[in-house]
Every structure is written in C-alpha cells, then in structure tokens.
Amino acid sequence: MFAAYAARIDRAHPLNGLALGDRPAPEPRSGWSTVTVKAASLNHHDLWSLRGVGLPEERLPMILGCDAAGVDEDGNEVVLHSVIGQTGHGVGPDEPRSLLTERYQGTFAEQVAVPTWNVLKKPPELSFEEAACLPTAWLTAYRMLFTNAGVRPGDSVLVQGAGGGVATAAIVLGRAAGLRMYATSRDATKRARAVELGAEEAYEPGARLPRRVDAVIETVGAATWSHSVKCLRPGGTLVISGATSGDRPSHAELTRIFFLELKVVGSTMGSKDELEDLLSFCAATGVRPVIDRVLPLDRAREGFERMESGDLFGKIVLTPAP
Questions:
Q1: For residue range 77-101, what is the model confidence (pLDDT) as tens digits?
Q2: CA–CA distance from 132 to each of 39, 120, 219 (Å)?
Q3: Taking a C-beta distance cutoff of 8 angstroms, is the pair 163, 189 a contact?
Q4: CA separation for the pair 234, 213 (Å, rounded)
C-alpha cells in the first residue's frame, strides 16, 4: 500500500528522512481493527518523529501520522484515538502509553491498524476530513481548556501563536464555550483570521493586553513564555502542551509565579472519553476544525514543507487515493 513514512532520522533537516512509496499492509492481530483511511491530518509530532524524538532508528521505517478517520472492517465510519496503550487494551497492561508512529505504524497510508478499543464512531455531521483533525491538535486544545485550565464561561484566555493547529482549535472551542479569547501572532493576516474565528482581539507577540487573563494556552515555548506569565491575573493558570520555539526560556519568571500564586500545568493529548466529548461538542454546536488545505497523500511532502515553514492557518489534511 502507498504510504508516507520516516525512512531515516535527520535532526537538522527532518524532511530529508521523509519517503513516499509502498509499505506492507497491516496484518490481522487479535484485539485490533484495520481501518481504511479516508483522511489523515498532519501534526508537529510528525516533524519531531523525523528528528528522532520518540522514534529511535531501530524502529524505522515507520509510517507517519497520528490522526485519521475512515471505515472499519464492518463498514462503520470511525475516528481513531491516537494514544495506544492508555488502558492496556490491545497491548497489555505493562506497555507504556505511546502515540501512533512511536511504536506502531501510523495513518499516512491506505490502511492503519489500531486496538479496537481505540476506534470511535464518527458523527455523521462531520466529514472525514473534519473528523481527522480532531484526535491530536483539537483534543489537546479541548483538554487544555476544559480539563486543565479550569476556566468557565465568561473567563478570559490568551492563546499564543495563532495559526497552529492547537492554537486555532483553542480559539474556536473557547469562543463556542462562552470564553473571552485573545490571541497573538507575528503575522498580521493570522491575527485577522484569529479575530474572524472568535478572538476578541489579536496582538503582536509581547503586546500589552487590555486586562490580565484567567488562563494562557501556551504551545510556542521559549519565545512567548515571559509574556504568557506576565499576562496572567493573580492565581491564573498557564497550560503548556508544546514548545515549538524551544524549551529553555531566557527568564523562567519564578518570582512572579510564586508571588502571584500562578499555576503552571503540563498537558498532553487527551483521553478517549474527552475525544468522545469533543466529537459530540462539534456535532451539537456546529463547531468545525479549521482546515488550511486538503492534499492527496502523494503530495504529503508539500504539506510537511508548509507545516515546517509555519505558513499555514489550521490543519493540513491528507487523503489517500480512493
């Protein structure tokens, strides 16, 4: 079957390790389901995999892709939960949890195999392309906002780095849930798009906000860390799920954190129950993932290049040939 996969690791130039070509189809396995992929979406996790983060060379070649929606062996339209081994289903109780592509072949292919426990029904209101955007970036944003930030309707939230998958999802979800959303971006066009999606205002990085916020959604890391801390009200919460600009800020802001009793919460992905809630939320409210573009799988390199450059707004979706 045709697939996009990591053929080798190149930490300095990750796309040098990306290959397109034939790979073996999944073999039947007890407790697992094989899903015919209709749509799959890119995440920064795929770039990190090409750099060897979470993917050692001895596991190569590895088909990339965490997220997918498709059709199972019984003809059901489904969405996949990307976290393997969260409860031991399909792998045994002693295996640590992992994302697809870390231990098991991913979704940028015509078919993918996952534990049957990881297969969820796709709401008919969502297209395959829309549903394929949810299991990683949108689920991460959902957990950051509604589980870890502890915000309620009417609270204010700053989202750093508007344009990325998690940041875009947080703006849309927060607005739909009655939160007052603010955003930052270096790009004026992305700031305008953030306002169109529901942000009350979007600012250049480091700009002074009209008020201190209840929570900050942080995926940028070192470049925005000090600003994130300084934008919080006393007792506010900073939730971090990524560090695309690096994980070593020049100033940790420890004095401000302890003096104002700020909370810093790490957040990774989300649970299967939270994904079910997210699917229901989108179906009931009309909220839909923001899609930058849909590309055929044989143009996966173009999608990777666009994501690596940051020249996108929303998710890039790949569709295998019918």
A1: 999 999 998 777 778 888 888 999 9
A2: 6, 12, 21
A3: no
A4: 9
What DSSP element (H or E) covers 83?
A: strand 83-84
What angle do helix axes 165-176 and 272-285 make, rounded to 10 degrees? Answer: 60
Q: Decide if 83 contacts 97 (C-beta within 8 A).
A: yes
Report pLDDT digits (tens) over 275-305. 999 999 999 999 999 899 999 999 999 999 9
How many CB atoms neighbour CB 185 within 10 A? Answer: 24
Report yes or no: 218 and 225 within 8 Å, Cβ to Cβ. yes
> Cα(first)–Cα(last) distance of the chain, in Å?
12
Q: Are 100 and 93 in contact (CB under 8 A)?
A: no
For 105-115, what is each residue's pLDDT tens digit?
999 999 999 99
Q: Residue range 185-198: average pLDDT?
A: 94
Instruction: Give residue 250's identity as a one-letter amino acid code.
Output: S
Contact 4, 18 (CB under 8 A): yes
Instruction: From residue 33, give the alpha-carbon distance in Å to each of 74, 115, 279.
Output: 10, 6, 20
Q: Tell me the mean pLDDT in the region 9-30.
A: 95
Angle at alpha carbon of residue 108, lines to 100 and 49, rounded to 5°: 50
* pTM of the predicted protein model: 0.92
